[in-house]
Amino acid sequence: MEKKALLASALTVLAMTALPAAQAGAMSPGLSPAPVPTDTGASPPAPTDMTSPSPTDMTSPSPTDMTSPSPTGTGAMTEPFGPACASLPATGEGSLEDMAGKPVADAVASNPELSTLNDAIKQAGVAETLNSAEDVTVFAPTNDAFDKVPKDTLDKLLADKEELTKVLTYHVVEGKKTPENLTEGTLTTLQGGTLTVEGSGEEFTIDDAKIVCGNIQTANATVYLIDGVLMPK
């Protein structure tokens, strides 16, 4: 009896020892039970910085000045005007570009619309005086303007150098006059007399002559082509 009791006890101990092993064997091979965290309520540590790195400057570079440059003297007329401007050569001698690079007497000489005036300048010997002048305005009679003068009167004028010089310098005033300056009323000429100016915009008269192409630039002068020859009073 005693042996049977000991055997039963040994079997009971053996069965109890084998039970955990049998339970472990029921688990999938190679899988270990997940470790229980020490503190299940703690949140996982946040990364040091999850935000995308900001560039030093995400704004577009601003140019020093995005505004268009304002011309000096807003509203001032800068281009030649008048119906006779269309008759000037588009390129080459006598063109606006050609005249802009020459002193005024040379510019007149290159312009086919001013050939009679060029002859008068040569006859009077004032080409160098005009070329060396600083900042003048010339009211230049066109060939058509000289054609209005009776031939005998014109021939007599061209033959009298002193009188011709007076007439030519009566067409010149100091300073490069813009169209806006032509509303002054009167202008003093190099001859010493005065010119009466009337008009505005693109319509002007100088004494009794009309401007037919104005605001032409040369190296030292502003030129206004006129349809009449001005005679000193």
Automatic annotation (TrEMBL):
Residues 48-72 have a biased composition (Low complexity). Residues 101-230 form the FAS1 domain. It holds the Pfam family Fasciclin. It comes from the Bacteria. One of its GO terms (cellular component) is extracellular space. GO terms for molecular function: cell adhesion molecule binding. PROSITE patterns: FAS1. InterPro entries: Adhesion/Biosynth-related, FAS1_dom_sf, FAS1_domain. One of its GO terms (biological process) is cell adhesion. Residues 1-24 form the signal peptide. Residues 24-98 are annotated as: Disordered. Keywords: Signal. This is Putative surface protein with fasciclin (FAS1) repeats. The lineage of its organism: Bacteria, Bacillati, Actinomycetota, Actinomycetes, Streptosporangiales.
